[in-house]
Amino acid sequence: LTNTNITDAQEMETIWTILPAIILILIALPSLRILYLTDEINNPSFTIKSIGHQWYWTYEYTDYGGLIFNSYMLPPLFLNPGDLRLLEVDNRVVLPIEAPVRMMITSQDVLHSWAIPTLGLKTDAVPGRLNQTVFTATRPGVYYGQCSEICGANHSFMPIVAELIP
After folding, report:
1. Could you tell me the pTM of the whole model?
2. What is the CA radius of gyration of the chain?
3. Residues pairing with 131 in the sheet
């Protein structure tokens, strides 16, 4: 009976719950706008559509007459000396350096992931959804990647090879 005059301080609890929420919203709104603006590119030099299939990729250069080709992993019997086993493909994606490239990535069957770690690229390929990534390469060379999703048996045998040329 000594503390009968103490209240629950509901007004104070309401203030210290709502005030941090308002601060977080004020921080998040400009950040979301900046995040959206950095993802958009107005005039890319190339737009390439990459479609993930079970064990291979299909690439479409949509800006140049609809050039379409498949990219399969080379079997060990067809490798030349110096080629990387399980990473070399029969048709590479050829791109210029110092030019903005937009990759539109989707899948036809299951989840895949179009990933080239040395370029800092990783975008999921989801059936029925068209994801986008934009990059500008600064150094020529051959860059290797793989599907990094567990998309079925032999999922790691979906290599990605991008050849960047001046």
Report:
1. 0.76
2. 24
3. 105
